[in-house]
Write a structure and sequence with these properties.
Largest sheet: 8 strands, antiparallel, barrel
CATH topology of the largest domain: Alpha-Beta Plaits
CATH architecture of the largest domain: 2-Layer Sandwich
Strand order of the largest sheet: 2-4-3-10-7-9-8-5
Distance between the termini: 30 Å
């Protein structure tokens, strides 16, 4: 990517992180690039899958408190298996990876019994050679999970607004009004109430789409001490997207987004050098076939 293009993207993403619903004119003023350039590049990034601006609902408003990561090893080509797993209702993420296994999933369920039944179902799918399950214990860094939330009552129209923003967090007030059967001013009032309470948050996520700007890497960590103390410094790194303490073969997992292999390697080296990290095992995300952005942590 040319340096000028990279500077444009950096400035645009930074401005969106500060104000995800800013108008194109406001983004142009903030970045110093012409309005037409900002409009064209924003559209290009969103259409390519490189950039998602969406509302993520706070897990306090989800009735599925059990969250787990499932790693799968296949004994045959994985494309048919990915299609089967994408259809799993409980899955919010399904991705082909390079590492010790072939596919990773993140699932959400109401109870541990439901998780046990789900893993049995997945294990029985043709093409699954083995699977390993990690239960999420505490979310130490995320887009929304670790943020404070005020409990408010949400009705069906609020739900429609959250779902609409989950598809496109920059949807206009007029479009949101149509989605919820409200006037634009009423839609605006409800959305501000939802966001101010922390029931949902509009987040900006970079992904490796057609332009391949961002590489997603996950590290499973075994720690020399309790997770909070060991991971305090790691979770402050700007490349780190989320950090979760887990129950299973790893004590924690760290997911990071970096611009290319060199950036990912540099971040992983800093993690490996941490005195409280006993061991790190990594896998790189190749093709996410399912990613429900409104359900992210």
């Amino acid at each position: 990517m040319p340096d000028s293009q990279a500077r444009l993207d950096e400035a645009l993403v930074a401005a969106l992180r500060d104000e995800p619903r800013a108008t194109v004119l406001a983004l142009a003023r903030r970045t110093g690039f012409p309005r037409a350039v900002i409009a064209a590049r924003l559209r290009q990034l969103q259409e390519s899958g490189d950039l998602h601006v969406v509302a993520a609902r706070h897990p306090a408003y989800d009735d599925r408190p059990v969250i787990a990561a499932i790693a799968i090893t296949a004994d045959s080509p994985i494309d048919p298996l990915l299609e089967r797993l994408r259809a799993v209702e409980e899955a919010v993420l399904v991705s082909a990876v390079i590492g010790a296994f072939d596919i990773t999933m993140e699932v959400r369920l109401r109870t541990h019994d439901e998780l046990a039944r789900l893993t049995a179902r997945i294990r029985a799918i043709p093409g699954v050679a083995s699977l390993s399950t990690l239960l999420y214990a505490r979310v130490l860094k995320s887009y929304v999970h670790h943020l404070p939330v005020q409990r408010i009552e949400l009705d069906e129209r609020d739900g429609r607004l959250i779902r609409a923003l989950g598809r496109d967090g920059r949807m206009s007030w007029q479009e949101l009004a149509v989605e919820a059967g409200l006037s634009p001013s009423a839609a605006r009032t409800r959305v501000h109430r939802i966001l101010d309470a922390g029931a949902a948050r509009i987040v900006v996520m970079e992904r490796g789409g057609r332009f391949g700007r961002v590489l997603g890497v996950t590290a499973g960590l075994n720690l020399a001490e309790e997770a909070d103390a060991a991971l305090q410094g790691i979770r402050e790194a700007p490349e780190v997207e989320f950090v979760v303490s887990t129950i299973g073969r790893f004590d924690a997992i760290v997911h990071l987004k970096a611009r290319g292999a060199e950036g990912a390697h540099a971040c992983l080296e800093r993690i490996r050098a941490h005195p409280r990290i006993a061991r790190a095992e990594t896998w790189t995300h190749l093709v996410p076939v399912k990613e429900q952005f409104s359900e992210i942590l």
